[in-house]
Design goal:
single chain, Glucose Oxidase, domain 1, Rossmann fold, 2 domains, 19 strands, globular
Length: 363
């Protein structure tokens, strides 16, 4: 079946459908990872976006239940150069096309993803509409006039509180669009993890008597989540905080810094990041379209701890006096190397230190 993509600049791509039928509008972004399409599709941070994979062959190892990063995909579509209809992998349970159909995602193969990626890099991310129907160009342009969603976090966050019991530190995970691997990393370190909705209050969190609070990744503009900013402001100094991706941006806003939309963002599994205190470079997985502005950090109690080597953007923050650390990238992801896992250990050390200080003060 023929499928089409129309960008807001008027560029029209025609390819072949391999997912669900229908029409969807979303922000067109690209990801440079060579593998991991299932994890990318099920990362809630892609809510409302249409993903272009720059690697030319997608679908060749199929889909495995254990590789999901959430219970379902939240992206609006997938664009690839070549779709492998028949998967070859011992873990394969179903094809990528079948997976997309099950969740109503449109997939388009056979388009020039190299040209599309270059266009996004030059102009920046833009809105697009994908369709398997026979709409006229005028009808597709009309679809592009609809406003972009701004409630992505509310769509992907858990609606209830749930717990992963364990014997170690108690961590409350505020779910702005959390990936399963965040919970896995904490559970592997014997943490008890209580996952809560994005709009929970600081008072409700503190009733759990947590040893630390994890601020998860998530989709969209951090300024569209004022509830999270207020909660973080009330938690600072009362409990150790660790923010990842959107959580990192929300901490910056809570401390008085600012964020801005990037031209085309960072999405992929090969982004080099430098830790300023050690000079060490790590290869990271990233997925974000907004960044903390470096100049805005200067007049706050935060200091920059990590920078992206590709463009110099802020990749990590630390509070000067309070137990708060953040990173823009995803230490729970493993894009090949396991370079960033130490950050979870650092979070545990921060919780231990905070607990010792509390015991000393109460003695």
């Amino acid at each position: 079946m023929k499928a089409r993509l129309l960008l807001e600049d008027g560029t029209l791509f025609t390819g072949t459908s391999f997912g669900a039928e229908g029409k969807r509008v979303g922000e067109i972004v690209f990801n440079t990872s060579m593998t991991g399409y299932q994890e990318i599709l099920t990362d809630p941070s892609y809510c409302g976006q249409i993903i272009t994979m720059t690697y030319p062959l997608i679908g060749n190892y199929g889909i495995s239940r254990d590789d999901n990063e959430s219970l379902r995909p939240y992206a609006h579509g997938l664009l690839v150069r070549e779709y492998a209809e028949y998967a070859s992998n011992w873990r394969n349970e179903l094809s990528l096309g079948t997976f997309l159909k099950e969740y109503g995602l449109i997939g388009i193969a056979g388009i020039d993803t190299r040209m599309l990626t270059r266009k996004i890099r030059l102009r920046g991310t833009m809105k697009g509409v994908i369709t398997t129907g026979n709409e006229s160009p005028e009808e597709l342009k009309e679809a592009l006039s609809s406003p972009m969603m701004r409630d992505q976090v509310a769509r992907v966050s858990t609606k209830s509180i749930h717990i992963a019991p364990n014997v170690g530190k108690r961590v409350v995970l505020i779910d702005f669009g959390a990936k399963h691997n965040i919970v896995r990393e904490l559970v592997e370190r014997n943490c008890e993890v209580i996952t809560v909705p994005y709009n929970i209050t600081a008072e409700e969190i503190l009733r759990f008597r947590p040893d630390g609070v994890m601020l998860s990744n998530g989709p969209g503009n951090p300024k569209d989540v004022p509830e999270g900013i207020r909660t973080i402001q009330k938690l600072m100094g009362k409990v150790p905080l660790f923010g990842i991706c959107l959580g990192h941006q929300l901490v910056a806003l809570a401390a008085g810094a600012d964020t801005e939309k990037m031209k085309f963002g960072h999405r992929g599994g090969n982004h080099p990041v430098k830790e300023l205190s050690t000079g060490r470079t790590v290869i990271t997985a990233q997925n974000h379209g907004f960044a903390v502005t470096a100049d805005s950090v200067k007049n706050t109690e935060l200091e920059i701890t990590h920078i992206a080597l590709n463009d110099g953007t802020v990749e990590g923050l630390r509070h000067k006096t309070l137990p708060v650390i953040t990173v823009q990238y995803h230490p729970e992801s493993a894009p090949g190397p396991l370079d960033s896992g130490y950050l979870f250990d650092r979070f545990l050390e921060m919780m231990e230190s905070f607990a010792r200080k509390g015991e000393t003060m109460n003695a």
